[in-house]
Design a protein that fits this description.
38% of the residues lie in helices and 19% in strands. It is α/β, with parallel strands linked by helices. The strands form 3 sheets. A 9-stranded mixed beta sheet has the order 4-3-2-1-5-6-7-13-10, with helices on both faces. Strands 8-9 form a two-stranded antiparallel sheet. It has a two-stranded antiparallel sheet with strand order 11-12. Helix 4 packs across helix 5. Bound molecules: alpha-D-ribofuranose and calcium ion (CA).
Length: 317
Amino acid sequence: MRKVIIDCDPGIDDALAITLAIKSQKLDILGLTICSGNVPAEIGAKNASRVLEICEDANIPVYIGEETPLVRKLITAQDTHGEDGLGEAYDMNYDSNRIKKGGVQFIIDTLKNNNDISIIALGPLTNIAMALRQNKEVFNNLNSFVSMGGAFRIHGNCSPVAEFNYWVDPDAANEVYQNLPTKIHMVGLDVTRKIVLTPNIIELMHRIDTKMAKFVEDITRFYIDFHWEYEKIIGCVINDPLAVAYFLDPSLCQTIESYVQVVTTGEAIGQSMVDSGNFYRKPSNAVIAVDVDSKRFMKTFLNTLFPHDEIEVEAYL
Ligand code: RIB
Ligand code: CA
């Protein structure tokens, strides 16, 4: 069981990613640390606790981290994820006792006391950057780091070039890319845009496990409406689960290694500049996912959340 901290901003796709991580039964999730992004961190923490209730996983603590980006004013994605961050589906129960403050200190203390910790970051990198600022040395214990974020050869989702997580807090993203002692596995829009949860797949979910299917359908309906209205997509792109799946099985994605920096000012703010042409002659600090076996991902996702012996899910993909 690989030990991980999941830093996230739940968030509909974060919720699906956390569910995948738990149901995989391959991860020892030491804690969820919450940053502001899709929703303010306080709301995200409640949503994280709601997901843990639904997954019936009583042991994972939730820590609220930084409430605002390092420099920029917080701009949330509540137009996409709903005011409550979970598609305004319904008032799900959550265990407030599970929620603590001190997300950044939890990251530092966990890295200080273990040398086999990995971090899967599914939101803006504010907590990670703050932890690096406060105690860079403990990150020498970090095993691996996966970040859902950025865009290489594909357009952004917040500007022609910027992806949301790195656009919300470009200063944090750049500080992490410049200072993390281990290479960042960048799972960006180049690959996550190929991961689309369609009505057909949701219908299949209902045929297998109506309770879990109802959760998925309820929290994604708002998101699916957004995708039709703004991108004329039937279904919704679920970015974050791919970062978890890639952490579990890196063979899902084709990658290149390159130096990456994140633009912190001007029109291109938030752009992950992948120097694949080696103009800057700097050593690579990142492993960038450039393609994905989307069918194999969806098969893994479905078989993990909706285990079923008789149904070959790939027949429906
Ligand atoms: O750009 C997509 C990313 O931004 C996802 O992590 C989504 O949850 C939002 O945080
Ligand atoms: Ca997220």
